[in-house]
């Protein structure tokens, strides 16, 4: 599981579900790198830093989801601005954790306001 705690379990999904699921590992490393304008080495560095953990195909090849590609794109933005890869990954993990905490807090506040 990625360091930021997002689940990537896609077992039991239909083909239609997979097309809609942003956690489904649909992209191989070459395609992911091309889409983002980065190298395979950059994607491996993001994995080593704990930002993204690609699934593996039956042949052992790395497979990335749309969600992981968004994280990688954000990392590239930060790196392009001069942030070291490891620091960029930590920033993104913290941003992701903060967004999740804010979502949980908002849900709690809605429940509390509704009198539950």
From TrEMBL:
Stretches assigned to the HTH merR-type domain: 26-94
This protein's UniProt keywords: DNA-binding
GO molecular function: DNA binding; DNA-binding transcription factor activity
Lineage, top ranks: Bacteria, Bacillati, Actinomycetota, Actinomycetes, Streptosporangiales
Xref: InterPro entries: DNA-bd_dom_put_sf, MerR-type_HTH_dom, MerR_fam
Highest taxon above the source species: Bacteria
SMART domains membership: HTH_MERR
Cross-referenced Pfam families: MerR_1 (PF13411)
This protein's name: MerR family transcriptional regulator
